[in-house]
Design goal:
Helix content: 10-25%
Distance between the termini: 66 Å
CATH class: Mainly Beta
Structural class: mainly beta
Number of domains: 1
Radius of gyration: 23 Å
Number of helices: 2
Strand order of the largest sheet: 1-2-3-4-5-6-7-8-9-10
Strand content: over 45%
Length: 163
């Protein structure tokens, strides 16, 4: 009988702890979207029509990491151009670019230099080109991606729409 009473109390305690743990008064665990709050607008599929087909850049937020890829779709062919990621660090964010057929297969890091609700800017002074990678939010369904040299004279811009 004594064992039965102890088991009942343990079961009751377990049920109460589960119910209390699920109450609305408990603080929420910080989610990935909160960690990436100012840059979460980049998540999604962006595209533009180019001379050689459609250029697509996709971003997802999963497992505390933003992952992206850039590719070209031309007819039935899909060509992977780059594998990207953005990681939250103590000092901001770091953008990693693995561009197919370039940089001797090295992943190139770019440190965040400017972050706001409408601009994400990364910089790497040691890279040949680009030194700057900039994402500018024009609207909820339109961005401008710009890559620049250190002197900011040599640059390329790509307007993209959300798909």
């Amino acid at each position: 009988m004594k064992r039965y009473c102890i088991a009942k109390f343990l079961l009751l305690g377990l049920i109460l702890s589960v119910l209390v743990g699920c109450s609305e008064d408990q603080p929420e665990i910080e989610s990935s979207s909160q960690e990436y709050g100012k840059i979460a607008w980049l998540v999604g599929t962006w595209g533009r029509k180019g001379g050689n087909g459609h250029l697509i850049e996709e971003w997802v937020l999963k497992d505390e990491l933003m992952r992206g890829k850039g590719y070209r779709v031309s007819g039935a062919d899909t060509i992977l151009l780059e594998v990207l990621s953005i990681e939250k660090t103590i000092n901001g964010y770091t953008y990693f670019a693995d561009v197919m057929g370039q940089n001797e297969k090295r992943v190139i890091p770019f440190k965040s230099s400017k972050i706001s609700d409408s601009i994400i800017e990364f910089y790497n002074s040691d890279h040949d080109f680009p030194n700057y990678i900039i994402y500018r939010r024009i609207s909820n369904d339109s961005i401008l991606v710009r890559i620049e040299s250190s002197n900011r004279v040599d640059k390329r811009e790509f307007g993209m729409s959300k798909l």
